[in-house]
Structure formats: C-alpha cells, structure tokens
Specification:
heterodimer, A: about 525 residues, alpha/beta, Glutaconate Coenzyme A-transferase, 2 domains, ten-stranded mixed β-sheet, eight-stranded mixed β-sheet, 15 helices, 25 strands, B: about 300 residues, TIM Barrel, eight-stranded parallel β-barrel, two-stranded antiparallel ribbon, 12 helices, 10 strands, globular
Amino acid sequence: MINAVGRNIPDELLTNGREVFQGNNYRDGQIYTKPGPTVKAQIKPQESKLVESIREAIRLCGVKDGMTVSFHHHFRDGDYVANLVMQEIADLGIKDITIAASSMGAAHDPIGKMIEDGVVTGLQTSGIRGKMGEAVSNGKLKTPCILRSHGGRVRAIEQGEVHIDVAFIGAPTADEYGNARGKGGKSDCGVLSYAMIDAKYADKVVVITDCLVPFPNFPPSIQAVDVDYVVVVEEIGNPQKIASKAARITQDPRELMMAKECARIMAATPYFKDGFSFQTGVGGASLAVNRFIEPLMRERGIRMRWGIGGISAPMVELLEKGLIDCLVDAQDFDIDSVNSVHKNQTHYEISTSQYCNPMNKGAFVNKLDFVVLAALEIDTGFNVNVVTGSDGLLMGAPGGHPDASAGAKCSIIVTPLVRGRIPTVCERIVTVTTPGESIDVLVTDYGIAVNPRRQDLIDHMSAAGIELTTIEALKDKAYSMVGVPDDIVFHDRVVAIMEARDGTILDVVRQIKNYEV
Amino acid sequence: MKGKNRLRRTLMFVSAQTPGLVKEAYIYGADSIILDLEDAVAENQKDAARFSLYHALKTVDFMGAERIVRINGMDTPHWKEDIRAAVAGGADVIRIPKCDSAADVVAVEQYIKAVELEFNRPDAGTLIMAAMESPKAVLRAEEICTASERLVGIALSGGDFRKSMQTKYYPSGNEILAARGLLLLAARAAGVQCYDTIFSDLNDMEGFRVETVTGKEMGFDGKSVVSPRQIQVVHEVFAPSEKEMIEAERTVRAIRENAERGIGIFTLDGKMLDVAFLPGAERVLELAKASGLYKGDLV
C-alpha cells in the first residue's frame, strides 16, 4: 500500500493493526491504555540489591530465549554496558534476544557478530551504525529491525507495542538500593533521560554502575522503587567518548555561511521574539547557528525562554550569558553540557517522553518554535533521510529529528547541496525518516528553499529580503554538478521498518545487493 | 568597456587546479574570483591547471561573479598559453603578476587581441588587471595605469613587495604605506581602480578587519582575499552607512533632475553640488545595493 509520503509498504507488514503512514496528526486524539510492568514485590527489609556480577543479574532476572532487553545510549560511542551484557547472554547460550535500545552505534560492533550467530534476532532502535548496520543491511537479522525516533520509541513502550523484559541501565552513579543518576563518577553523562521510561515499564530493572555512592543517591533519574538489582563493574564506558571535549565552532566558511542564513531565516519569522524556544542539532552548521542568533537576539533585546535537545556547549554558553532562561535536557553531547546540568540551576533533566513522545498528553517539542537539523538526503517533497547512506547501508539515526521537526513551528534543514559526488537534494531519497510535511525550510550552500506548504514563511522571508529558490531548482543544480545518481539496487527482502512517530509505517529498508566485481 | 568599472570589493584567489574549489567559488559572494594559474600551481602541473581552468570557465555558472585569471609571470614560458586557455574559456579579466612596466601591459593586450581573433571572439573585450611586486613597478604605476584602455585596475602584491623592500609584515602597515599611496595616486589619476593586498593570517580576523578599514579609508576600491571567511568582513567594512546611502540617493536624484532642467550647479541642504559629485554618489549607491541596503533603482 502506498503511504502518505509515496512509499510502497508491503501488505504482509500490515498485520495486527499496523497501518501505513497517513500524515503527522493521523492518530491525534487516539485513546489507549498504558501497559504496566510485572513487579516482584520487595516487602522484606533488605540492606542491598547488589549482586556480584552481570551474569548473576541475568540469572536472577530469568533472562531466557526470546526475551527483550533494553539499553540506553547516553554513553554514546563510549558505551561498554550493552556489549558486557550481551556477551554474558551469549556466553550463557541464550538465543533469540530482541534488543530494544534507544540507539546503537559504532561502540556496539561486537553485537554485529551476535546477529549473525542468532543470539540477537530482533532489534528495535533509533540509531544503527557500524557492524550492526552492515549485518542488518545484509539481511543477517532474523526479523526486520524496527527503527523509531526517540519519541516513537517511548510511544511504543508506553503503548505496549514493545514490552521490555529486562532493562539494563548503565549509570554513572548508583547507590546499593538502585537510585541512579547520570551525574558524578568517572563516566559522567549528565542525564539518564532515555532510561527513565525503561525503568518504569520493564519487568526487571538492573542498574550497572562503576561508581557506587552512599544511599540515597538523590535526586535520582532512576528510582530505587523501580530497580531489582545493582551491579558494580570496573568500567561502564570510556569517559573520553562519553562526554567529549566541546567541539569548536566550525571554521568552515561553507558551514558558517549556511549557519548565518539559518539565523537570518529565524529572525525573519514572527516566532523570533522574546520568549522563543529553540533546538539545534550537533552538525557543524547547526551548532554554529547559536553564534549567529546571539547578535540578533541582542540587537532586538530578546531572550530565549527555553532551549532543548541534545544539549551542547553553544547552548550552554547562551544560557550562561543570560540569553536563555532555561535548558531542558534529554542528552548531553559534551563536557560543557554535562557540567552545566550539574551546576546551572535552570538546566533541567527531562525524560524522553517529556521531550518528544507524540502520544502522551503533550511533549516539549509540541511547543517548540525553531529547530535546525541536518540531513543525509532530502527529496523535492522535503522528505528527509538521516538513516541510510547513499549506498543503501544503515548508518545513521532518526534520533529526535522526526520529533522536533514535527513539533516546531519552523523546522530548518541545513545541508550542503552535494557531498563529494553525492547530491544531497535529490528526486528520491533512499529512506524517508522525516516526512516532508514536518520540514519548512531547506538551507544549502547554493540557495534556500521554503516548503510550498508554508506560504506564510515564504512571505515573511521575501519581506525580509531573503532570496529564495525552489527545491526543484536546487535538485537540478545538484544534478548539473555531479550528475544523476543511479538507483541503488536492493533485494526484495525487508530488513528494517522505519516507523513514523505514531507507529504507522513510513518506509522500509531492503537488503542491499552488493556489487559484484 | 563592459564591466570595466564594476564593483570589485572582494577579489578572491582560488587555485585553478582544484576543481572542487573552483566549481563553488562564487557561492560565498565575492565580487570577483581570481582563478590562479601562478603561485598556487606547481611548476609541473601548469598544463593540468590550464585544462581545469578552461573547462571550469566553460561549464561553471559563476552567477555573475567576475572571472579573473591570474596568468604566470611574463618571465616564464607559460603566460601565453595561460592567456589562450583563459580567453578561449571566456574569462572576463587577465591579471598580470609581477607587472613591471607599461610594456608588459601592452604585450599582454596585444596577445589577448590575437587570441580573441584565434578563437573567433573579436568582441570579447577581455580586460586586464596588473599587480605590482617590485619597487621599480610601483614607481612606474602611472605609466602602467595608462598603458591600455583594457586596464581596469592595479594591485599591490604585498608579500613579494615586502621582500624586495627588505622588510616584513607589520600590523601597522607602515612597511607598505608608501607603495599603497603611490598606487592609489596613480590609479586615481588615471581613472582606474586600485585593490589592496591580501592578509594571510586567517586566524587573525580582527587584524584583517583593521587592515580592511585602513584600506577603505585610504581609498582602495576593494581587497584581495584568500579565504571565503574574509569576504563578509570586507563587504561589511565597505558598506556605506544608512546616512551615507540616503545622502547619496538624494544627491544623485537632485543632480539628475537639475541636469534635465539645464541647471549645472545648485545647493542641497546648504551644500553646493554639481555634476562632479555624481560618480561618487553613484558609487555609494552601488556599494549600498551590493550590500543589500539599497533597494531603489537609481543604479
């Protein structure tokens, strides 16, 4: 069946109430009942929930073939927890595990082999890269991988589509009763937003830490009332990769030029006024937008009420300069943001449900004025791909992209027109991860195009003297420079399902057909 | 001659040998792009660079940015073939490096004419720009400026000039103050443009701004740049203020209207004006238009 972004979704996937994507607000107002976890009561007073090893925790939780386990990705490329747990599961001979992670990255290459070995046969994640991406793209995973946005993942958990048997939550600090925080210790990651939902909905919750602190570890991100066991290990991650040094604002003139255009565009809209809200991605150009909105804010004498994300140093800088009232934080990307959530009274940790779940009673993104994000590809319908490379391989993450874009009054994509010989603006993108109806403006190094759905923005920008072109003209320009790319050749087999935020099917990813030499 | 007196606030150097840079050089908004066949290209790559240059000129739409080709010096075996590639490709301007005399300009002009005929472009009107690097050339600036009708402007090549003067770069600019002044005097006397030298420290944006302001105050038409990062600074510095723009608009309007009524000299806001004020006021409006400040139709 053809869905609202023109993608043909195989009928065999449309079972058990699954539907194709029918527009961002198709399920608005839907009534549902949240599921609850199975809880083993802990009435008898006890001193500690400490167990001696991850293997012991796995045994006590009763992990067995066919179960679903979850992980968070606050440790980014420095995560050791998923690999430690999965290696123990594999060593115990347990098979058919479904991993329900907030994201998986290059740190999880060892799990690629477990996919091939049948230890892992199901995968639900927001991001997928490295060996895991290669394994899934090559059809090694037994069942199609389900890709969801951050908001979509929480929705799936809170609607009962994903039932987590055991959540393994890496925590920079924890007490022996399970109160866990993203703050402190040697693997400080700032917040534990992704894991908050897992702790509330999983049947069993295991906190894994490398820094045991005295009870109570307060205020906790993960509450002891939800935790079954605590394990102390040598290291839960590589601190250098968990909270890296803040990226220097790009010096690349192309990125700076595009960032400046983004700021001009923001300033041309009626939303750029005292009390506005803003989210930015962590790409070079996206981050640099902060630098260019600062003088515009000062010129107009306005302040940002709140910034959200994915927080990084440039947002913290604006907070500390008094240009932002508060930051609400679902993930920290660098040391500056980690330090800020510790010390700044108006830098708050929020759960991913608060951040962007489309089907709770109203998430932060719904009230967002601006978001500036990148794209791997964007088609002439403004549909964006951030998950598959131009070779068809799974190598990215929808993350909060579809969520913030859908919520923001003005969502801006900033991307170079071509990357090497690959056109970024094209006729047909490999995978739709964010529907075009969510995207308002495209900023490239060769011109700016506004989604025709937003005539109001076109009028505002024209009034501000911002020169506009069309996305078709940008595509033509890209093709004139690097040629028209050949279609990627896939097998028929679906290896991944790209879910829309509301759980309908936005697109499918098929098994790549490797070129024969 | 077409395009001779166009606005040249920024002249950005790009190696002609690097297609990735050449294809997109215009996107940063420089008024002129200098496609370099000289110092940026290794001696054994001159032919490859010429090949790239020709195809870039033929295929890339520079979206209105002027295409200047810096040829190799006339003391090399390359300059004639450089001119052939540039003229065949349709370059707007040939920039002569190490120009030492009027004779250099005349020789280049004659060769350009011959090549325009060779490639059936007799009306191409390829323009010339001369860069001076030696004290001797600086002292001959006046004869260089008047050597050809095709000459649009002159520039000081600061790096080599400093070496020949046994000095080096100083933030004060004292080491090239005399040369800047002489070139400006010669250019203004001949009615051609004059461009300030490059500033090579890309990490010192404040120093670059200071030098650009000095250049503007001295009367340069623009400045050569070596990175897109420098373009915006030059354009900001050269942009007229709103007050200057309004005054220029009123001046242009008043002089034109009075001229139609046969009045040559008159007063505006208590200031005596005549036609001699027109070019200056029009230039202010052109700068304002290029800076996005002026939306009117007087220029």
